[in-house]
Amino acid sequence: MIEMREVHKTYPNGVRALNGINIKIQKGEFVYVVGPSGAGKSTFIKMMYREEKPTTGLMLVNGMNVGTIKDTEVPMFRRNLGVIFQDFKLLPTLTVYENVAFAMEVIEEEPEVIQKRVMDVLNQVKIGHKANMKPNELSGGEQQRVAIARAIVNRPKVLIADEPTGNLDPETTWGIMDILKEISDTGTTIIMATHNREIVNTIKKRVIAIEKGRIVRDEARGEYGYED
């Protein structure tokens, strides 16, 4: 589903973010990406949805070469991806329903299909009863549930979660993780960058640790492995 071969990333200011990354992530895997701040995790994650491109090396996602995708092809490339951010990135002027529906409208889905699918995913993440509210009327945990619904409404093959529980309290965090586990159980590939030691050590999944732009650990059922 995702493969990197000798991927390097150097930014225009000379910062080397990734140094020779080689990795394969199979369909249906749930993978944590961990490491200290500044290790290269964000660049690693951003390449998966083509926010960044490799300087050198081969990066494949869903069989498409991230390094050669034209800007005009990015929207099509992202149709098979869902992305969840730490800061939600919801559109403040739209309702919960409209925020999620927007993801289907941009791919020109039929209105009747949108209506059914949006309510299905809102109910799946247990936020359907707030479909007509605006984001500022919701708690942080509720906003993240909306963000998850938006990310999965088009049934992506890969779900990328960049610190999805970073702004949430512990109780809400576990509710979000329950949802991600349910999504994983349907066969969706999930890659989750996190600094949450308790999550990684409690919900055992594959752990990829990045330090100074290199993979230093890749364990099938790994530990977080860093001090808070």
UniProtKB/TrEMBL annotation:
ABC transporter domain span: 2-227
Cellular component terms per the entry's GO annotation: plasma membrane
Domain of life: Bacteria
Membrane topology annotation: Peripheral membrane protein
UniProt keyword list: ATP-binding, Cell cycle, Cell division, Cell membrane, Membrane, Nucleotide-binding, Transport
Residue spans crossing the bilayer: none
GO molecular function, one term: ATP binding
Main subcellular location: membrane
Locations listed in the record: Cell membrane
SMART domains registered for this protein in UniProt: AAA
Subunit and partners: Homodimer. Forms a membrane-associated complex with FtsX.
Function according to Swiss-Prot or TrEMBL: Part of the ABC transporter FtsEX involved in cellular division.
Family to which this protein belongs: Belongs to the ABC transporter superfamily.
Protein name per its UniProtKB record: Cell division ATP-binding protein FtsE
